[in-house]
Structure formats: structure tokens, C-alpha cells
Design goal:
Helices cover 14% and strands 39% of the residues. The chain starts with a helix and ends in a 13-residue tail after the last strand. It has helices spanning 2-12, 48-51, 59-66, 84-91, 120-137; strands spanning 31-35, 38-41, 45-47, 52-56, 69-72, 79-82, 101-105, 109-113, 115-118, 143-148, 154-157, 163-168, 178-187, 190-210, 225-232, 250-251, 266-267, 277-284, 287-295, 304-309, 316-322, 325-327. It folds into three domains: 26-113, eubacterium ventriosum atcc fold (Sandwich), CATH 2.60.480.10; 115-267, Type Iii Antifreeze Protein Isoform Hplc 12, CATH 3.90.1210; 277-327, SH3 type barrels, CATH 2.30.30. Strand 20 (304-309) and strand 21 form a beta hairpin. By secondary structure, it is mainly β.
Length: 340
């Protein structure tokens, strides 16, 4: 009886048998992530280094972990949360053993977009730089301008690499009295905002100006001309810049003192006057017929004018060839109306 009790007691107090199981080894360097409470994110992507302090036994792997993307950054005043589960899912793409990763600190991280305000003056200066270069390419260096309206400052995300203000002129050419530009704001080479800027422009330049009134057909010589710096408006675009350009020309219409002369104000002198009896020549092969007629309009060399031939009721249209001479066989000028 006693031996039976001792045998039973021995069985009860035998040390428990341990199961012969091997705990799989953790492969790879040890990684520790200390999550912060909140973070402001630069650029367009959230990186692991933005939201955690990383410790790793492998230095190269640590640098790689710092730049591991976790998704797009919030936009504007929006925020989002990053959980440890989301972190592990993204780290799984690096083929890391999750048992080597220890996450501590806050249970989740709130992230915001890091932003900055670009003053309106900085945007205007970018537009002015482009406008100045465009005017220079158009040989319009003597000009002044002012901003129309009141551009506002702009809030944009802070980039990781760069922030560039790039102004462009749609069409590439400045208008006669105004210029419209678009200023693109690029953060890390991506356009995040565009601001329209409009300038009112005043152009100046040397131009030939009349010193007294001139009648239509009156010769223009140096005694009635001068050059001065004037404002070049839309109505006076492309004026004559030098007096020598007006040699042997006459006024094409009545002109007033102070007129800034342009091409439409002058013409070659008339070689045929209205009411003048002129010679009209018609050619057909080697046959030439000459007759006389009355000019119905003044004409410069090369102009088309109507001529009423002797004994005829309707005029014919001729091309002025020289003094008192016109060539027949010309089609009616589209500028002339019935009744000329």
C-alpha cells in the first residue's frame, strides 16, 4: 500500500515534458519604429520617415525605410490617419519579415499637408520678368505697364525638392495695349496652382510727327516733319521712325498738326489728276490703239482709275502708267463703287 502511494506521488511530481518544437528564426535586421503623434507632410507623398523615428541595424535599409511611400499626402486643410497596419502593409512590399519590425509610440499618426503662402507681389514679379523679355523680343524696350485688378496671394503645398513660378503668355505675343499672362506654380515639378495676371501697357518710341496741317496730295518734306518720343497707341502702330522714309511722298488725306505718321497717311505723288485729259493705250498682241480720255479720279503710278473716253458715256478702268498715261484692259477695282 505504501509503495503504491509513493509510486503515484512520483508520477505527480515528475517535471513536465517539453514539446520538441523549434521557434522559427527571425530573418533580417531588427527594425524599431517610434510613431509620432502628428506630422506635416511636404510634397505629394507621405514617407515613413515623416511619421516615425526609425532605428535599424542595417544603415542602407534604414535609408530605404526613410523613403518608403505610404500613400498620397493630404490636400489643402484636409488630414488623414496612418495606422500600424497600414505601415506593415506597405513594408511588406520590401519583403521584410514582420517579426523583425517593432512599432511603438502612438497607436496612429495624424498627418497634414505642409503649406506656405506665396505673396501676390512675388507672383507679379514672375509675370513682369516674362513680360519684359517678350517686349524685348518684339523690339519694344521703351514701355511701361501696370497690373490690372488686385491679384491675391496663393497657398500651396511645400515641396521636398523645388518650388518654381513659371509665367507664360498664351500665344506668345504681347497685345498693343495689354498683355495677359498665366503664372503656373510648380511644386516638385508638378503644377499645383495657376494665377492669371493682366497688364495694361503703354509703349513709347521715336516717331515722325507733323509740324503743321497738310492737305491731301500735298508733298511731304523735311521742313514739316520732326521726330520725338511719343506714346505708341493701337491707332498709331508701326509709325515711321525716320524722316528719310518719307522722301518723295505726299499726304494721302488731310492731316492735322501733331499727327504721328504711319503708312496709311502717305502715298506716292499723283501722276494723273481728276479732270485731266490723258492718253489711254490699249494693247492686243502687236497691235496698239491710242485714244484720249478724261481721268475721273486722281491716281498714283500703278493705281486703277476710271477714265471716260471721248465720245463714250460709260468710263473704262485703266492702270496709271506714268504722267498723263494709262493702260486700258484693266478690270474694275474692288475699291471703286458705281458713281466712283
Amino acid at each position: 500500500m505504501i509503495s503504491t502511494i509513493l509510486l503515484m506521488a512520483g508520477i505527480l511530481f515528475l517535471p513536465p515534458q517539453t514539446k520538441n518544437r523549434k521557434d522559427p528564426e527571425r530573418k533580417g535586421p531588427r527594425i524599431s519604429l517610434q510613431l509620432v503623434r502628428e506630422a506635416k507632410i511636404r510634397g505629394n507623398q507621405i514617407l515613413l520617415g515623416d511619421i516615425a523615428r526609425i532605428q535599424c541595424t542595417d544603415r542602407l535599409l534604414r535609408d530605404k525605410l526613410e523613403n518608403t511611400p505610404l500613400g498620397p499626402a493630404p490636400v489643402g486643410n484636409w488630414a488623414r490617419w496612418i495606422s500600424p497596419k497600414e505601415i506593415l502593409e506597405n513594408l511588406g512590399r520590401l519583403n521584410l519579415d514582420p517579426r523583425t519590425i517593432r512599432i511603438k509610440g502612438y497607436r496612429r499618426v495624424q498627418v497634414f499637408a505642409a503649406q506656405e503662402r506665396i505673396p501676390a507681389q512675388e507672383i507679379i514679379q514672375a509675370a513682369e520678368t516674362t513680360l519684359r523679355e517678350a517686349l524685348k523680343q518684339q523690339n519694344e524696350t521703351d514701355a511701361t505697364w501696370r497690373v490690372m485688378g488686385k491679384p491675391r496671394s496663393v497657398i500651396v503645398p511645400i515641396g521636398r525638392k523645388s518650388r518654381i513660378l513659371q509665367a507664360k503668355i498664351p500665344g506668345g505675343k504681347v497685345g498693343p495695349n495689354s498683355a495677359f499672362l498665366r503664372v503656373d506654380i510648380l511644386v516638385d515639378d508638378k503644377v499645383v496652382s495657376s494665377v492669371p495676371i493682366t497688364f495694361q501697357i503703354q509703349r513709347f518710341g521715336e516717331a515722325v510727327v507733323l509740324l503743321r496741317d497738310l492737305k491731301r496730295g500735298e508733298p511731304i518734306d523735311a521742313s514739316v516733319l520732326t521726330t520725338k518720343r511719343v506714346q505708341i497707341k493701337e491707332a498709331t502702330l508701326d509709325p515711321f521712325r525716320e524722316i528719310s522714309q518719307l522722301k518723295d511722298l505726299v499726304a494721302s488725306r488731310n492731316l492735322r498738326q501733331g499727327t504721328i505718321l504711319k503708312k496709311g497717311d502717305v502715298q506716292k505723288p499723283f501722276v494723273i489728276r481728276r479732270g485731266e485729259i490723258i492718253t489711254v493705250v490699249a494693247m492686243s498682241g502687236t497691235i496698239k490703239v491710242t485714244t484720249r480720255g478724261i481721268a475721273q479720279r486722281d491716281g498714283v503710278k500703278g493705281a486703277v482709275i476710271p477714265v471716260l473716253l471721248v465720245g463714250k458715256r460709260e468710263p473704262i478702268f485703266t492702270t496709271v502708267y506714268g504722267v498723263g498715261l494709262a493702260l486700258a484692259g484693266t478690270k474694275r477695282s474692288p475699291r471703286l463703287r458705281k458713281g466712283y
